[in-house]
Each structure stands twice: as C-alpha cells, then as structure tokens.
Amino acid sequence: MDPSIIAQLMDLLRVNPYSTFFRSIGDLPNLEYQKICIKSDPGLDQRVFNAPTSSEVAAIWVENDDSEHLTPRDIFVFNHIGGSHLVQYYFGCYDPLQYPLLIPLRDIGWHQGIQRINKRTASVSANNCTTQLIDPHQSTSAEELLRREQQESFDEIVSAELPDKDNNLHLYTAVVKHMMHDPCRVLNPTNVCMKKNGCCKNNYPKQFVPNTVVGNDCFPIYKRCNNGRTAKIRGHDLDNRWVFPYNPYLLAMFDCHINVEICSTIKAVKYLYKYIYKGHDRVAFNLVSEQSTQQIDEIERFQSVRWIAPPEAMWRIFGFIINEVHLAVYSLHLHLENQHQVTFRAHENLTNVINSNFSAKSMLTEFFATNQVDQNAKKLLYKEFPEFYVWSQQYKMWTIRKKQVVIGRIVTANPFEGERYYLQMLLNHIRGPLSFDHLKTVNGILAPTFREAATMYGLLQRDDSLEECLYEASLYQMPFSLRRLFATILVYCNPTNPRDLWERFEQDMSADFQLLESSSSTVRTETLRFISTIFESMGRNINSFHLIDQNIDFDQDEFLFREIDDELAVPIPEEDLHASTLLNCEQQNAYNSIL
C-alpha cells in the first residue's frame, strides 16, 4: 500500500478518541502474546485445507455449527486498575470501535432516539436500484452465445505462436520471456518436466498444425504454423511448437506468464465445476502462547475454520457478485410408486402425514395428473415437461410456463437399481403417460414389471439404452465412476455386445490414465486392470466378457495381497476392541481359537 495513504489514515485516526483508546491497550501489563499455529496435514482435503504458500494478511472465521445460537462479537474495555467492561452491540460506541475507518470522526452508531427511515420508501428505492442494475431483458440467451461462439474463432482469443517481431516487438519479447517451454527431450533430457519414460509431462514439443481444431478429447489443438519464426531459449532455437497458449491482450498488459486455454465442451469444464463446489477455503489452527513449550494435542486443540484472504475480503467489502446460479436445468424426481420422499415437521402426526393427499404428490405423480387433464401435456416426454410447465414446490403442482428457458433432466438411475432404472427408460421414450400402470401397459396388456414393459416395447432388444446411459455418464462422471458403472452394466444388465460398449467408451474410461502414461498399451492395461478388480469384487471374471481378442491375465498374488490390505485397512471401533474383554469363558476360548 502507498505509504502516503497510510500516513493520511494515521492523521485521520489521530483525532478519533476511540482509536487513541485502542492504541493505549498496548500499555496494559501482563498481556500474553499469542501465535497462530496452522496445521499442515496431507490427510485433510487439500482442495480446502491447503495451507497458505506465502505470507499474507487473512481473517479467520470460526463458524458455529449451531446456526440458531450465533456467537456475538465481543469488545472489552480495560481500565488501568485491572477492571473490564463489555461493550454491547446496542451501545452507541460499539460501531465506531468496530469500524474505525468507516466512522473515523467520533460519530456514534445506533443509539436511543436515532431517526428511523421509512421502511416502505427504503424498500421501494432498493427495488428500483435493483431493477436498474439487473435487467432480464438485456440478458444474453444461450442461443445467442452459441451463435457468437460459431462466429468467433478460437484464434481470436488464444494464440500458440511466436508473434511477428517486426510488427509487435513488445508482444514478441513477452512471449519469449514468459510463454516458451524450456528445451526438453533430446535437447535437454534432464529438464524438470521429463518423466521416467523419456517423455515431457506437458507433451512438448507439440506438432505443427495449420489450423485450430478440436481434438478427440474435446480440447482444442491450437494453430502452430511452420513459418520459420524461432527464439533462442537456453542455447537452443525453439519454434512455434514450444509456445504455451496465451491471450495476446492479457500477456501484453500484465507482462507475466498467463496460460490461457479454451474450454469448449462440458467434458472440459466438468473438472472445473467439481473443484469450485469444494466449499470455502479452510485451515486447521490453534492459538498458543509464544512462551509455552507444551506440545499441542492436535485432536483436542485444533479448530477447523474458514480462511478469508485479502482478495475475497475486498470482493465482499465492495459488494461485488461472488457467484450467480441460474437454474437452467430442472432436476426431475424419479421414484417407484409410493416410494417418493416425504418431508414433515417434528411435531406433525405421522398418521396424518401418511394419509394426506398433499404428501402423496410428487413431481412425477403430478406429471401423470397433468397428462390426464391437459391434451398438450400428453405430447411431451417427462424430460421435456419443464420446457413448457413450471413446478411449484409450495403447492406441488405443474403450471404453464410463461417465461425463462429451461430444460429437464431426470435424475440418474443405475442399472443396478433394477425397476427404478427401467422406469427411467420408459419415461425417456413414452409420451404422455397417465400413471405407473399406464407406463406398464403395452397393447392393452399390463406387464407385471417395468423391465418386462421395456422388453415388450422393444427397448431392451439392443444395447441402445445402455449406450445412452454410459454416454450421459461420460459427460459429467469422472473416469473412476465411469469404469464402475461400465462393470455394473456388464454384470447386471447382460448387454448383447459388451465389446462394442468397451470400444465405444474406452477413451472416456481411461482419461485419467492417459494423463499419467504416454503408452497407449499401458493405458489400456491399467484401465482393464482396474475394471478387472471391480469384476472380482462382484464374483465375475473379466475374460467372460471378451472385451479384447486375447485373454486378460493379471498376477493372482496381486489380487490376494490387495484383498488382505483392504481387510487390514478397515478401521475397528474402540468399542469393538473393548468388547472382547466382556466375553465369558466359553466365548473367550472360541474367540482366541478363531483369531
């Protein structure tokens, strides 16, 4: 911060009697100096509890789990003879003491007799202000954004080439200084980016590409022309294949390393969304005396608190928008008959709740009810319903939509769930069903189960539904979860051609191994090894599905050791260990013999 600003603030606060009083606290004797110990433990979730990597000023917010009993902020006034006095929040001096920079000139805060502002006028004014700032008619529709994306090429945002030195020397210098990968591979086999297999972990140098295209993994392959432009980096002439993708405007403005990539599909951004919903930044800390040499009991003494760094604090102080969530996707409930979720208050009578018509309603049951009275509704699938109707959680009913464009998505159902999965399959194909039984009725015949109804409709004659299930999961599920779903489908759904499903989704299921291994054969082996482990846990052998031409054989001792390790890793509660001391003589003999 500018020293002159600090000087002005000090001059301003010098006439503030509260500030003068606050500074005098340093004269109090016997004040114990405290320090904050931050716990750095790899066992904590490092997305949330990663310790600060540099010195910074931050606020620690101790949250109370009991939201109904909030801990008040405390301001204590000490006198020189040892007494203390608590300043309550309703005292006139509370605000100037709490916010000296906002109230620097001894003005008192809330106090008896303060003039009241007309509530209605204030609220209308605030509403008008909001209306002026956020105009829904000026918002950009999804269609317009897509049109713009089609009109603007990736090259206008990101470049991966050396600029023309004669036309833009400043940008060329910035690229050479900040955006060139160091020589590696044959040029420098000992560079820090090199892996044991002799490949660069960042896959440099890239290939020359005449035009930007989207690769098979949905990430852009940026334009890198072989135009003869080079730069001398650590004694080697490097061309466009060694340039990190960058935005020319940002690089020229900030003159530092700023790697810019384009996320063009949901596959690219699903990792981002899974990270930003991790929760607030947190630390585990404890206050200890600087004079104390006592070891800290980490279990008892450390507290988990929010860590608010200066950027977040500034953003909140200025009232900038922290996040915006516009529910453009309706999550549609999926349940079997009379198996939907019902919420009730603790004091309500359960018999009345069960017999209530209101409790019997759900998104799905009211979808059936609307189809019975509305001819237009009968033309729609369940997932299409939110595009034309709005669900009221308060009244539990669908009404005709008058504004906002949304889409519907039925919540995911795993084939392992049986009837619920086949109910989802029918809802995705049958328009305007009137009830659960109507869904199961095919050509006037009421099928006993949803699976048999799906078979009579011809939905299970091919693997289209299973392929659709895996495709939908590949859009948002991580490879770990996708492999488990694949194994579950093969074991419990009996697809007609498991090999087709394997070849169709092999790349999606091995995406994490592709980041660690450069050999395609090694990636396939590791993926099959993982899937084979899942089959083993389900009592099946991977070779029975003929996913590849040859048999898949892994070290049987490896499976045995892993099972032993898994069993040994199961935590044993303390009360279970203590239970062995409560056995009678005969039980103790049996217990000792078994162990």
Envelope shape:
extended
Which residue ranges are poorly predicted, with pLDDT under 50 across at least 5 consecutive positions? 120-148
Alpha-carbon distance between the two ends:
68 Å
* Residue fraction in strands: 5-15%
Q: Helix content range of the residues, please?
A: 25-40%
| Count of alpha and pi helical runs | 24
**Rg to the nearest angstrom?**
33 Å
How confident is the prediction overall: mean pLDDT? 80
Q: Order of strands in the sheet with the most strands?
A: 1-9-10-2
Number of strands: 16
Structural class: alpha+beta
- What's the story with the biggest beta sheet? 4 strands, antiparallel
Number of domains: 4
Account of the protein in words:
There is one protein chain. This protein has helices spanning 3-14, 17-23, 46-49, 94-98, 119-133, 142-151, 169-178, 248-254, 266-276, 298-301, 310-317, 350-355, 363-373, 419-427, 436-439, 450-456, 464-476, 479-492, 498-509, 511-516, 520-537, 556-568, 574-579, 585-594, and strands at 34-39, 59-61, 76-78, 84-86, 213-214, 220-221, 231-233, 236-238, 282-289, 303-308, 329-332, 389-392, 397-400, 407-410, 441-442, 445-446. The chain is an alpha+beta fold. The protein folds into four domains: 13-117 and 282-325, no CATH class; 155-263, no CATH class; 329-456, no CATH class; 464-554, no CATH class. Strand 5 (213-214) and strand 6 form a beta hairpin. It starts with a helix and ends with a helix. Mean pLDDT is 80; it is low at 120-148.
